[in-house]
Amino acid sequence: MDYSKIYKDKLTTSSEAVKVVNSGNWIDYGWVTSTPIDLDKALANRIKELNDINIRGGILLQEPEIFKIDNPQNHFTWNSWHMGGIERRAIEKGFCFYSPMRYSEMPRYYRDLPFGIDVAMFQVSPMDEDGFFNFGPNCSHMRAMIERAKYIIVEVNTNMPYCYGFRKLGDNRVHITEVTHIVEGSNTNILQLLSKDNIADVDKKIADIIVNEIPNGACLQLGIGGLPDAAGKLIAQSDLKDLGIHTEMYTDAFVEMAISGKVTGNKKNINTGYQVYAFAAGSNKLYEYINNNPNCIACPVDYTNNASVIASLDNFISINNAVEVDLFGQVSSESSGLKHISGAGGQLDFVIGAYLSKGGKSFICLSSTIKDKNGNVFSRIVPTFKDGTIITDTRANTHYIVTEYGKVNLKGLTTWQKAEAIISIAHPDFRDELIKKATEQKIWRKSNKI
């Protein structure tokens, strides 16, 4: 069938398309690299006419134009599925709030919402001959989201990678018959999320410890941040072979592994030979690699982050960051006190799933100390968390904790054993004070020695 007439009938300008937005609407801004550019500019030009607008999105790679208007809090609220630096600054300005969740549940959240979505606007790749627009590297929850949208406005970007999906799991695409408006965008380059070229010494020490725990044929997940990225780069330089990929976020580190011949996926129990991910963000090298690559499969997050699916993959290795760890084995990866840093994401899903995997291991990694802007050094292993600190992984779920001073497996340990193990990988300058606090907290034995 020739869809050119339908395309022409639905084609409009960004300024015309955003006229469907009314005060009181709920709007969806897509996800990561699908966040609209031209439509965002058009909405910023008229949003001062509106009030009580609620907008959803997450992992912003550049500041939206709507954030730059005067007194944005008087016109809209940004509801974030996952926080980054741009959104942290918006929190301080009073118009941004986080939606706490396990990322794996997001598609269900959309399907179970007591209210629908008035307008969905997001970037896509050009329409194919069958009338489909591809979500690019943003499968995640997009299909569930558009099922609830009254108006679906696609912003076509010729630079958006075409990413394959598994049809049986839910399409990584939307058909022209579902779309209400088509805007041909200015074809800007896909926004990049760049990692550091050089690995810091402390990150290398931690990454070395983790890499030595990875067997040939393991299936990998890397979280967002410097330490998982460092581990990925060292894996690419290692002698490991026949690795598999099943991850939430696909990064440049995976591309390096694949190009260096470390990734075959031949040992994966399911999706054998495929690299599976929920979304991807990185350099242009990454976007070029996944574009039209049938070995890289974008899947809904309720599949990639499903703990039972993760557990079905033997030798699953999960590597994630943390902000702080306390002496009870609790992990905070979202805040320090009331200072919001990130979101829950899929960390707990992978912590549980990796532990349940045959031969699997979950690693939570962090440097032992952190330095503030005045040069003061603080331990990131703390007796207890500050008031307001969000617990991402409970003490019952934490598996391995890793700092530059070593690794400890907390599974099956009593409270005093956990405290002893955790203090053993704290910075030596803080160990005596941590022992003192553990004694006050009744989780220390006099016979213990570090």
Work out the oligomeric state of the chains in this entry.
Answer: single chain
State the share of residues found in helices, binned by percent.
25-40%
Main-sheet strand order equals 1-10-8-6-2-3-4-5
Distance between the termini: 73 Å
| SS-based class | alpha/beta
The average pLDDT is 94
Q: Give the tally of β-strands.
A: 25
Number of helices: 15
Unreliable spans: none
Q: In percent, how much strand structure appears in the residues?
A: 15-25%
From the alpha carbons, calculate the radius of gyration and give it in angstroms.
23 Å
Overall geometry comes to: globular
Largest sheet: 8 strands, parallel
Summarize the structure.
The chain has helices at 4-10, 14-17, 38-46, 85-93, 106-112, 142-146, 201-211, 226-236, 252-259, 284-290, 301-304, 307-311, 347-356, 415-424, 428-440; strands at 11-12, 26-28, 53-57, 76-80, 96-98, 117-124, 132-134, 149-156, 173-175, 181-184, 219-222, 244-250, 275-280, 296-298, 316-321, 324-326, 331-332, 335-336, 339-340, 361-365, 369-371, 377-379, 381-382, 400-403, 406-409.
List strands and helices in order, with pairings:
Layout: H1 4-10, E1 11-12, H2 14-17, E2 26-28, H3 38-46, E3 53-57, E4 76-80, H4 85-93, E5 96-98, H5 106-112, E6 117-124, E7 132-134, H6 142-146, E8 149-156, E9 173-175, E10 181-184, H7 201-211, E11 219-222, H8 226-236, E12 244-250, H9 252-259, E13 275-280, H10 284-290, E14 296-298, H11 301-304, H12 307-311, E15 316-321, E16 324-326, E17 331-332, E18 335-336, E19 339-340, H13 347-356, E20 361-365, E21 369-371, E22 377-379, E23 381-382, E24 400-403, E25 406-409, H14 415-424, H15 428-440
Helix pairs in contact: 7-8, 8-9, 14-15
